[in-house]
Amino acid sequence: MADDVAVDVDEHGRPEPPFGGTEAETLIGFLEYLRATFAWKTGGLDAAGFSVTVPPSDMTLGGMVKHLAYVEDWWFGCFLLGAEPSPPWDTVDWNADGDWDWHSAADDTPEQVLALWQASVDRSREAVAKALTQGDMSQLAPRVHRTGRAPSLRWIVTHMIEEYARHCGHADLLRQAVDGSVGE
């Protein structure tokens, strides 16, 4: 970030998006804030906490963590970098279970899915940093979407902000069902 853009961290360890940043700094700042919110909502839970549902939904925090690990790798790895899916996504029969990322988390420990998610986030950060050395937010991904068009880095980051915002709301409800914790 630019030297004149201060980053404040709130009481939950979330970096506040910059008020005076560039387009990239602002968008990435909001994405990082939502990633940190998600980490806060999913932190410190055991396997039982990661498997709680709020009927009629079968959504769990464990499934959500694994799903977001997949989404990070898909958009930043496969689209932005043009890479092929990496483990564990490369061996999944998505036709047999289109929600494998959600369902298979029941077989993993919280530590496993959180490590998978954190590694995906780390790779995504590296992909964005690399892309920004080669162009701005308008650069197009090398992979073409099913619509026949390639998304821009701006679109990918904005989509990820939307993805995290939606799932942070879900995580807030699930976390409250687990242990009564509430907050933003």
Based on the model shown, name its key terms.
184 residues, mainly alpha, Four Helix Bundle (Hemerythrin (Met), subunit A), 6 helices, 54% helix, 0% strand, MST-like, DinB/YfiT-like
Q: What do you see in this structure?
A:
The protein is mainly α. The protein has a single domain (23-179), classed as Four Helix Bundle (Hemerythrin (Met), subunit A). 54% of the residues lie in helices and 0% in strands. It has six helices and no strands. The protein has helices spanning 23-42, 47-50, 61-80, 100-103, 110-134, 153-179. Helix 1 packs parallel to helix 6, helix 3 runs parallel beside helix 5 (110-134) and helix 3 packs antiparallel against helix 6. The protein is globular.
Short description:
This protein has about 180 residues and is mostly helical. The protein has helices at about 25-40, 45-50, 60-80, 100-105, 110-135, 155-180.
Task: Describe how the helices and strands are arranged.
Elements: H1 23-42, H2 47-50, H3 61-80, H4 100-103, H5 110-134, H6 153-179
Helix pairs in contact: 1-6, 3-5, 3-6
**Mean pLDDT over all positions:** 94
* Count of folded domains: 1
- What would you call the structural class? mainly alpha
Order of helices and strands: HHHHHH
Rg over CA atoms: 17 Å
- How much helicity do the residues have? 40-55%
SS summary, helix count: 6
For the record, the CATH class is: Mainly Alpha
Task: State the distance separating the first and last CA atoms.
Answer: 26 Å
Task: Please state the second-level CATH architecture.
Answer: Up-down Bundle
Number of strands: 0
- CATH H-tier superfamily: dinb family like domain
Shape descriptor: globular
Fraction of residues in β-strands = under 5%
Report the biggest beta sheet as strand number plus sense, adding barrel if it closes: none
User: What's the CATH topology label?
Assistant: Four Helix Bundle (Hemerythrin (Met), subunit A)
**Residue runs with pLDDT of under 50 for 5 or more positions:** none
Protein name: DinB family protein
Organism: Kineosporia mesophila
Region (Disordered): 1-21
InterPro entries: DinB/YfiT-like (IPR034660), MST-like (IPR007061)
